[in-house]
């Protein structure tokens, strides 16, 4: 190469390196922080390898912040961090059988003696390190940046298959075991179905769902999501055996869930057979896998082989190709959901993919369409991989027709009602703002209202709702209660029998508990769990309607996004009128029991009890707080609403309350707040003490 050509190619390399770094930083962020990657792992790894190769050729362009210089971080706010005793490294990945053979050959010549390879599945979840001391789980840490991770012990404890205390056996006094936390396919599908109903963004795949779940600050939410875990790596000073496989079998005896699909192989042919077998069989597993991990079995031999900077020489991962197919983009349609969110959907020439025929794929939002530079008639790659909803990952530019089709553009107006679409700052989605008269929004809200987890009305599927809507019988959720047997029976395909069933379901719905009514009315971001929390802490629709941002955000689990959505919902007179109509119809608008002498006078308040009291014991005050919708908390903090102060309140508490400007409320005042007249009977648990 002449000098000039070399300079030119050097310039091109430099530009490509900069471009790749920028791209990979973005993909990293999507993957680790937002949990919604835009490219497949395959593509990501290919770009990373291209960058790594270019950087090797150009050491002068070294940058400590290049995406190749770190192993991705999943550190998040809200958790304490802990340093790993042994760094959590990654594995060299390959998609290529020849590279597996090369690795086997390399190991063989480095060891120059017989060796066994332990073949196992590469589970596609998130890695976790568990520390056990004296047979008890003491700490669970995520991988983080490989050097330190988040301490998520309380969340991990909710995973049933992780032993908190080991079965008696000869386990080392102190050891670490690593593995993968996973969300089984069935739980993943259930979770996404729920999220779809409450129009929360769907998780792209079980890995993101597992990772999103483990990062929840509330272990109760984690417990509901039914995570699973497989352990695959034992570390410690005094392990029972020299073989990795044998150690895992020992760990299985101590109570760990270890894969029973591990296999020790002696020849490369056996390894290849294992890979070929699982490449198809993995589809029958209950959890997602994305490859095979090969490990030299003997720990002594592992030590001889040692580590490179970020991965061991004694192991390699063979990754399965995500299944993808090339097909033609026929058209793009835009769907309007119940909250007005507009989703672009690609209509494809039908194609077989992982055992099903795919005709449609999601295009997510305007940015994704723009990034793909889609044109009608393009040949596109559709991929399912770990995902349920197929997506378009790439346009095959080589097969773009000479007569290029129209460029796909996001629409400006609602395809259903013509309203001008809006995009909220910081959000990727476009919305149709015409909530009151855009048909799919109206029908969507009714479908949600009658659905099983909401009012659970039999016989009212989307088609029936459409019939009623077309006939002008229902245009909001309260209209359902005005339907008559005659109205229903005169609809096509519906006879008297269905009419009577539907009416029974409608009548029965008046007994549906308040928390489900709250979920059913479809306030944005108020899914099932949030509705339960709100119902429990505020007790009634009136209390929720009157609660301001401050009261709402004082409730555990309720953040500004949810609170803002509730306040804005009740800020619209049409919604208030609708809720009033539902109340008049007789729906449950209070938590059961709340009406019988219970109130919501302390709704949303966090109250600390301190000192001794005259009229009730502390225990009784605790109950009174809860009965009135408040929450008794132990420590004074910035979020404490007030301190119920008896006499002998500790001076440090008093000082803390004063410094944070937290009001002190005495017994008499408190009893007034909850509408109880203090009688003159002193609390017989305490001596008669001076009032505060
Ligand atoms: S062994 C020193 N075994 O793959 C490497 N890892 O890219 C120790 N993984 O972060 C890891 N299944 O999260 C190992 N059977 C398996 C695995 C496995 C999945 C994950 C793990 C690790 C990543 C490496």
Present the secondary structure layout.
Layout: H1 3-32, H2 41-57, E1 81-83, E2 93-94, H3 97-111, E3 117-123, E4 126-133, E5 136-142, E6 148-150, H4 153-157, E7 174-182, H5 185-197, H6 206-214, H7 219-224, E8 228-235, H8 244-254, E9 263-265, H9 268-281, E10 289-296, H10 299-305, E11 315-319, E12 324-336, E13 341-353, E14 356-362, H11 366-372, E15 379-383, E16 391-395, E17 430-431, H12 439-450, H13 462-470, H14 485-489, H15 496-508, H16 514-520, H17 528-538, H18 541-546, H19 549-553, H20 560-570, H21 573-585, E18 606-610, H22 618-627, E19 631-632, E20 642-645, H23 651-659, E21 664-665, H24 667-673
Parallel strand pairs: 2-11, 18-19, 18-20, 20-21
Antiparallel strand pairs: 1-6, 3-9, 3-10, 4-5, 4-7, 7-8, 10-11, 12-13, 12-15, 13-14, 13-17, 15-16
Task: Explain this structure.
With 692 residues, the protein is an alpha+beta fold. Helix content is 36%, strand content 17%. The chain has 24 helices and 21 strands. Strand 12 and strand 13 form a beta hairpin. The relative contact order is 0.06. 2-(butylsulfanyl)adenosine binds next to strand 3, strand 8 and strand 11.
Strand content: 15-25%
Report, as a whole number of angstroms, the end-to-end distance.
91 Å
Tell me about the largest β-sheet: 6 strands, antiparallel
Work out the helix count.
24
Round the mean pLDDT to the nearest integer and report it.
86
The total count of strands amounts to 21
3D shape: globular
Extract low-pLDDT stretches. Answer: 70-75, 682-692
Rounded radius of gyration (Å): 30 Å
Ligands bound here? 2-(butylsulfanyl)adenosine
What structural category characterises the helix and strand content? Answer: alpha+beta
Tell me roughly what share of residues is in helical segments.
25-40%
């Amino acid at each position: 190469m002449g000098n000039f050509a070399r300079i030119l190619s050097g310039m091109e390399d430099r530009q490509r390196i900069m471009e790749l770094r920028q791209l990979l930083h973005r993909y990293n962020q999507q993957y680790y922080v937002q949990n919604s990657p835009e490219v497949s792992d395959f593509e990501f790894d290919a770009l990373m390898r291209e960058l790594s190769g270019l950087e090797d050729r150009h050491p002068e362009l070294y940058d400590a912040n290049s995406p190749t210089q770190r192993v991705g971080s999943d550190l998040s706010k809200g958790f304490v961090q802990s340093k790993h005793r042994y760094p959590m490294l990654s594995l060299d990945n390959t998609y290529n059988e020849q590279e597996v053979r090369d690795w086997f050959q390399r190991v063989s010549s480095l060891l120059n003696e017989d060796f066994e390879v332990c073949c196992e599945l590469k589970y596609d979840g998130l890695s976790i390190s568990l520390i056990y001391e004296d047979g008890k789980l003491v700490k669970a840490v995520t991988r983080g940046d490989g050097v330190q991770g988040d301490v998520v012990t309380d969340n991990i404890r909710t995973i049933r298959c992780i032993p908190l205390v080991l079965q008696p056996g000869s386990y080392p006094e102190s050891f670490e075991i690593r593995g993968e936390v996973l969300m089984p396919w069935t739980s993943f599908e259930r979770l996404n179905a729920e999220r779809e109903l409450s129009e929360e963004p769907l998780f792209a795949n079980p890995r993101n769902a597992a990772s999103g779940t483990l990062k929840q600050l509330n272990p109760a939410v984690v417990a509901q999501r039914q995570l699973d875990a497989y352990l695959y790596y034992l570390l410690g000073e005094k392990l029972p055996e020299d073989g990795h496989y044998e150690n895992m079998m020992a760990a299985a005896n101590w109570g760990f869930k270890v894969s029973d699909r591990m296999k020790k192989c002696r020849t490369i042919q056996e390894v290849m057979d294992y890979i070929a077998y699982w490449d198809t069989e993995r589809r029958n597993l209950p959890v997602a896998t994305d490859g095979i991990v090969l490990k030299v079995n003997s720990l002594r031999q592992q030590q001889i082989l040692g580590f490179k900077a970020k991965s061991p020489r004694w192991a390699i991962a063979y990754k399965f190709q995500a299944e993808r197919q090339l097909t033609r983009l026929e058209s793009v349609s835009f769907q309007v959901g119940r909250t007005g969110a507009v989703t672009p959907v690609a209509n494809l020439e039908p194609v077989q993919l992982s055992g099903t025929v795919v005709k449609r794929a999601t295009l997510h939002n305007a940015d994704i369409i723009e990034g793909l530079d889609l044109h009608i008639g393009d040949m596109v790659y559709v991929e399912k991989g770990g995902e349920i909803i197929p997506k378009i990952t790439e346009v095959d530019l080589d097969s773009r027709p000479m007569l290029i089709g129209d460029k796909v553009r996001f629409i400006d107006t609602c395809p259903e009602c013509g309203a001008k679409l809006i995009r909220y700052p910081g959000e990727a989605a476009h919305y149709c703002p015409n909530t009151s008269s855009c048909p799919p929004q109206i029908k969507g809200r009714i479908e949600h209202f009658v659905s099983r987890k909401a009012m659970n009305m039999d016989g009212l599927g989307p088609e029936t709702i459409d019939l009623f809507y077309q006939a002008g019988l229902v245009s909001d959720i309260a209209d359902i209660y005005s339907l008559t047997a005659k109205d229903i029976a005169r609809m096509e395909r519906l006879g008297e029998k269905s009419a009577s069933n539907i009416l029974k379901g409608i009548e029965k719905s008046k007994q549906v508990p308040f928390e489900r009514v709250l979920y059913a009315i479809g306030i944005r971001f108020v899914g099932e769990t949030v509705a339960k929390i709100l119902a429990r802490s505020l007790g009634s629709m009136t209390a929720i309607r009157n609660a301001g941002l401050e009261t709402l955000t004082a409730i555990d689990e309720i953040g500004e996004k949810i609170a803002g959505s509730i306040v804005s919902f009740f800020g619209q007179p049409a919604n208030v009128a609708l809720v009033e109509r539902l109340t008049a119809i007789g729906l449950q608008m209070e938590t059961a029991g709340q009406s019988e002498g219970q109130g919501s006078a302390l709704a949303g308040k966090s109250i600390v009890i301190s000192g001794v009291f005259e009229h009730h014991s502390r225990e009784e005050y605790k109950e009174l707080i809860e009965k009135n919708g408040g929450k008794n908390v132990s420590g004074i903090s910035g979020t404490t609403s007030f301190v119920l102060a008896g006499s002998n309140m500790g001076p440090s508490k008093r000082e803390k309350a004063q410094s944070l400007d937290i009001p002190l409320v005495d017994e008499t005042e408190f009893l007034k707040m909850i509408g109880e007249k203090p009688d003159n009977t002193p609390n017989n648990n305490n001596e008669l003490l001076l009032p505060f």
